[in-house]
């Protein structure tokens, strides 16, 4: 069985400071992991994906995530927040050979001027 | 432009009146899926389709139907909508392959059932 837990429902940072959005997963198999971003009244846009290649994954807009198997974590980071990063972020897990994607409950990022 | 198109984007209707939300993709993707998004619950999978005429239930299929007669289209049907189906709905598609393929999402359909 698979599951994903986003540890913070809301995160607030000041513009120009680092962003950390936390995600822990559970999977019986080596999973595929994704981060998506959702801006208001928009669909979900893929930020980055992990598919068992490099453990440090770089995505769009300066985001990156590190897969840590020992900690079953896939935290999303960005060195310097921008106002346009304010959105909701979803961590997603999928087991290989399946058609199921399990979404976390989301983290709403607020960026303060 | 590669895209997943949902219609309508917004709909207010009444209990029991059948409705269909259409979803179309232009990427020749085999896999398509429907999700509902509710506050504090993230996205939950309703139904998915691995190819034409092949569909299966997701985690919350009750009260919904789907069909996949053509590769590009995957409509979501609510035969007798009820207020607990008021939600934001997303259609998604992806190419053939294992679960490591990312999905492409439509812009969503906001349904209100009175």
Compressed to H and E, one letter per element, the order of chain B equals: EEEEEEEEEEE
- Which stretches of chain B are low in confidence, meaning pLDDT under 50 for 5 or more residues running? none
Largest interface: A-B, 27 and 26 residues
Helix content of chain B: under 10%
Give the strand content of chain B.
over 45%
Distance between the termini of chain B: 36 Å
Which oligomerization state do the chains in this entry correspond to? heterodimer
What are the main properties of this structure?
heterodimer; A: 113 residues; mainly beta; six-stranded mixed sheet; four-stranded antiparallel sheet; 53% strand; globular; B: 114 residues; seven-stranded mixed sheet; 50% strand
Mind explaining what this structure looks like?
The complex is a heterodimer of chains A (113) and B (114). Chain A is 0% helix and 53% strand. Chain A is globular and about 45 Å long. Chain A is mostly beta strands and 113 residues long. In chain A, the strands form three sheets. In chain A, strands 2, 5, 6, 10, 11 and 12 form a six-stranded mixed beta sheet that branches. Chain A has strands spanning 3-6, 10-14, 19-21, 23-26, 32-38, 44-50, 56-58, 64-68, 73-78, 87-94, 102-103, 107-112. Chain A has no helices and twelve strands. The mean pLDDT of chain B is 93. In chain B, strand 4 and strand 5 (42-51) form a beta hairpin. Chain B starts with a strand and ends with a strand. In chain B, the strands form two sheets. In chain B, strands 2, 4, 5, 6, 9, 10 and 11 form a seven-stranded mixed beta sheet that branches. Chain B is 0% helix and 50% strand. Chain B is globular, with a radius of gyration of 13 Å. Chain B is mainly beta and 114 residues long. Chain A binds chain B through residues 9, 31-32, 34, 36, 41-46, 49, 51-52, 90, 94-101, 103-106, and chain B through 4, 31, 33, 35, 40-45, 48, 50, 56, 58, 90, 92, 98-100, 102-108.
């Amino acid at each position: 069985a698979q599951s994903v837990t986003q540890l913070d429902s809301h995160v607030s940072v000041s513009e120009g400071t680092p962003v950390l959005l936390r995600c822990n997963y559970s999977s019986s198999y080596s999973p595929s992991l994704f981060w998506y971003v959702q801006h208001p009244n928009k669909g979900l846009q893929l930020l980055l994906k992990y598919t068992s290649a490099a453990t440090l994954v770089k995505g769009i807009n300066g985001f990156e995530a590190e897969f840590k198997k020992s900690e079953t974590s896939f935290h999303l980071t960005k060195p310097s927040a921008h106002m346009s990063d304010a959105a909701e972020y979803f961590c997603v897990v999928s087991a290989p050979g399946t058609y199921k994607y399990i979404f976390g409950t989301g983290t709403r990022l607020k960026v303060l001027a | 432009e590669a895209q997943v198109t949902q219609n309508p984007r917004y709909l207010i209707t009444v209990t029991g009146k059948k409705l269909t939300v259409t979803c179309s993709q232009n990427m020749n993707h085999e896999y398509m899926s429907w999700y509902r998004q509710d506050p504090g619950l993230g996205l939950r999978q309703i139904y998915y389709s691995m190819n034409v005429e092949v569909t299966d239930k997701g985690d919350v299929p009750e009260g919904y139907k789907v069909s996949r007669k053509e590769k590009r289209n995957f409509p979501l049907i609510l035969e007798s909508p009820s207020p607990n189906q008021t939600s934001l709905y997303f259609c998604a598609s992806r190419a053939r392959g294992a679960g490591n393929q990312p999905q492409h999402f439509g812009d969503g359909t906001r349904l209100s059932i009175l």
